[in-house]
Amino acid sequence: MNIDMEYKKGILFVRLNGILNVKTSCIFEDALNRIVNKAGIRYILINFEKLYEIDKVGIFSIINSYNKFLRNSGKLMICGYNDILKIKIEESELLKYALPTNDEISAFNLVNI
């Protein structure tokens, strides 16, 4: 799995490429640990556009990251997921923690920046 991160206008954009599962979730969590803790980021958007597989552990990793970094003071947003990922996301508890957006640009409207 590859992760591309970009901080722009108060939002950390995390673009996932590949597979987020039991084997790769530690890569995702480590990448967020290095950036979010040091920078005090409050808003994160995870873009699933180039992610072609996710499992329960991958989804739990995202929820765990939300609980660890953002909780009450920030927002987690998600976008770019295809129909296959959409089914897994809707069957999980991820939507209790993350706000879906149409695309990355829509995220700016959700945080009023």
Description:
The structure is a single chain. The chain is of the alpha/beta class and 113 residues long. It contains five helices and five strands; from the N terminus they run E-E-H-E-H-E-H-H-E-H. It has a five-stranded mixed beta sheet with strand order 1-2-3-4-5. Helix 1 runs parallel beside helix 2. The model has no long low-confidence stretch (mean pLDDT 90).
Fold blueprint:
Layout: E1 2-8, E2 11-20, H1 25-39, E3 43-54, H2 56-70, E4 75-79, H3 83-91, H4 94-97, E5 98-100, H5 104-111
Parallel strand pairs: 2-3, 3-4, 4-5
Antiparallel strand pairs: 1-2
Helix pairs in contact: 1-2
Biggest beta sheet summary: 5 strands, mixed
| Order of strands across the main sheet | 1-2-3-4-5
Order of helices and strands: EEHEHEHHEH
Task: List low-pLDDT spans.
Answer: none
Gyration radius, in Å: 13 Å
Q: State mean pLDDT (0 to 100 scale).
A: 90
Shape: globular
Helix content: 40-55%
Strand content: 25-35%
Number of strands: 5
Compute the number of helices: 5
Spatial gap, N to C terminus: 30 Å
Structural classification: alpha/beta
